[in-house]
Amino acid sequence: xxxxxxxxxxxxxxxxxxxxxxxxxxxxxxxxxxxxxxxxxxxxxxxxxxxxxxxxxxxxxxxxxxxxxxxxxxxxxxxxxxxxxxxxxxxxxxxxxxxxxxxxxxxxxxxxxxxxxxxxxxxxxxxxxxxxxxxxxxxxxxxxxxxxxxxxxxxxxxxxxxxxxxxxxxxxxxxxxxxxxxxxxxxxxxxxxxxxxxxxxxxxxxxxxxxxxxxxxxxxxxxxxxxxxxxxxxxxxxxxxxxxxxxxxxxxxxxxxxxxxxxxxxxxxxxxxxxxxxxx
Amino acid sequence: xxxxxxxxxxxxxxxxxxxxxxxxxxxxxxxxxxxxxxxxxxxxxxxxxxxxxxxxxxxxxxxxxxxxxxxxxxxxxxxxxxxxxxxxxxxxxxxxxxxxxxxxxxxxxxxxxxxxxxxxxxxxxxxxxxxxxxxxxxxxxxxxxxxxxxxxxxxxxxxxxxxxxxxxxxxxxxxxxxxxxxxxxxxxxxxxxxxxxxxxxxxxxxxxxxxxxxxxxxxxxxxxxxxxxxxxxxxxxxxxxxxxxxxxxxxxxxxxxxxxxxxxxxxxxxxxxxxxxxxxxxxxxxxxxxxxxxxxxxxxxxxxxxxxxxxxxxxxxxxxxxxxxxxxxxxxxxxxxxxxxxxxxxxxxxxxxxxxxxxxxxxxxxxxxxxxxxxxxxxxxxxxxxxxxxxxxxxxxxxxxxxxxxxxxxxxxxxxxxxxxxxxxxxxxxxxxx
Amino acid sequence: xxxxxxxxxxxxxxxxxxxxxxxxxxxxxxxxxxxxxxxxxxxxxxxxxxxxxxxxxxxxxxxxxxxxxxxxxxxxxxxxxxxxxxxxxxxxxxxxxxxxxxxxxxxxxxxxxxxxxxxxxxxxxxxxxxxxxxxxxxxxxxxxxxxxxxxxxxxxxxxxxxxxxxxxxxxxxxxxxxxxxxxxxxxxxxxxxxxxxxxxxxxxxxxxxxxxxxxxxxxxxxxxxxxxxxxxxxxxxxxxxxxxxxxxxxxxxxxxxxxxxxxxxxxxxxxxxxxxxxxxxxxxxxxxxxxxxxxxxxxxxxxxxxxxxxx
Lengths: 280, 434, 311
Hints:
heterotrimer; A: 280 residues; mainly alpha; MetI-like fold; 2 domains; 13 helices; C: 311 residues; globular
């Protein structure tokens, strides 16, 4: 390597090292809030008034107090049920609809297509007032279904599936149809097994979004026995007072299920975001 | 019903597992097993005391599975209570400010408390502070059981006041029953303290400015709203008089002009002011700070023979139940009676008991400084009725913000009054949703 | 040689559709679409229309039925209401405070991470983990960090000599505090998007420019940024629309205070509809909010169209 090139090379290396250093610093900074919450949760309440990382008397008491005195375990159950129903429901309903839009020709196809597209423009937040009246009239306030059902008809999920199906080669289906298979069988046996990446992405995203939803569940779930984790945590937030260790313990406990989901499905989540981004 | 059948029922219900409701329907007041959900909005010192009282209830009534939930004070609490009742999953018993309770009644969200049911638990109208009881009636029917009155009061530093020669021979404060006497007292206190005569919270707080204004304005006989909030009837002359007086206190340096809730507490606790004006609930703060203080009625500056002071009351209500159930009702009333019986614990937090059996007792009279201002309960002026009014409501936010600007010296009384009137008129002319 | 599959030739039709698709796909299609369309009608289209109707009445939360007809009264009230405009402004202010950092910081971090040879999993974890947390968890943690007296932020800044304001209690600092929390919370999403976009850029572009003597800065300016234009547009629009819909942070951390200084437009809808029981009015405000979202989406749509024409 020439001397000039060598100097350029080492300049780039230095630049890269600086970049790396800066990035590590920011990444560590980004981890501070969670670390601080965990640190505080491991202290006895009396120690939390001293703002220091050192813990004189580490203890898990805050966690056991939260588990005992709040309904957080019930909230886990609620969130789990609702999020799972939403994820399963959305995948099923959206993939069926997407298959029809992708593979079938029927008279009102274009109309339906545009009607569904319009749905992407309507954010759920606009509908909280009519939803409340609707479920009140149906006598379904304070039920899990009231939370889950509106989350299922997601137009974006339909489009994700449709885009995926459009990209699948048609030969397999044609062979199957020549063998006399109907649409439903083709859907079940051929299309869906191939659609695993899309299913994973939609299922996980729906699960996470549903779990984290606050505004609508806040309105419809007012009984502490059936609240979801976000609603429960935000509703009883005042009751800890200055017991900061307990408050942080409840935050950590509230975070654990989703952190677990993240660690297990990291790849799917990241690919899902990246994929949707590239498709623009 | 034969004796043996009653005994059998009682036995069955007593051994029944938690969560069984309705079994006790045939033995009113006796059989109390089952669950009970109770919502309140008490944090801080009040929260600790309430927990204490609930634990005493639990020990005395082991067959009742009491589940208590504390929600954030103010609008969030009332919104959730309303939504839960609409969703047919209300708590069995809930706390409500007296001034918010009427809106709940008009919205058909509360159960009427029938005299017969109340009498079974020894709760009768004559056992309560008349003012608090009357204020809670709607069309002559009771919907709320008051457990206290929490008035606006005056705290004073006994050391400073002694040195300023403001105490009488028995160590109590000499009455400050005119604007001149009041201002003079503040001036003397300021000389001794070296900083301020008195302090009241102004910044980021709408309730406190409203309360000090309302106390003085009501002493002059002024009213704010009429017709359930449909008309704004502010008396300009009286309101201007009060606002001008308040502004003179901060402008002359007797009171700090830009201080928030916690800052005001600190100023008084550190001896930088001789007087402090706030609700009685801050008593624990100063007891913990171990400073020389006492409390008395908010001064009767304008009232003459008709003393008035701003106050509200905490009450216990029963939200509208989807399936009314005698056993559940009796459990609820049992809890309410227990809270009343523990009025002493509650009064330790500074509140004036509404339960006369305790209020008229020697025990309460011996509690100082709490008993100093018990007369406030009889002169209490509650926020005017209206769908947008009550403790922590939009009404207080609008009035309090305007008054705060006068106290802070940012607006003239006339401008603030115009601001208040305009905003209140917006609300008063809006179709009521209840 | 490749194997040949024998495919039976299909009779041609006028429009080229296979014969099995010409007839009878109406019913199966309906079957497949029915679940979605039924739920969609019940919970998207229906409520939208119902909300629109409700907005013309003085509907109350605690009274059945639509109550009195108000015509455009609710809309007029909203457009003349100082509370409406200030909550709209607060939402816009929040958007202004959060969008630039969420784009710029995410881009910078992604750039740095792209250059890193190993440990990328660590950076992804650090930046993205907050994103999957529920808002309530984020809020509880940051309320504690912002607590006057013993909050971590105040103490940390104190050690370098900066006195902190009352982060959540000062009307001037409350919104920036919420913005800071939001940036910490949601940066990871944009980070991942940018990282994926960066990895799509062909390396030889960089190598070629390096041989021409371009510095890293020039490479970023001339290659990276233009090639990420579409990603940036996507990030920006998603960010703006998400910011318009903000509710959770305000509700939990400041209750819209102090003195409504942080109340967002959705929180205004919540307050008016569910605290004040005025659901007819709240429905009108929701419709106005919907219009704002549509306008932003329309702007995005036209930008994307233009970008597609250019490429």
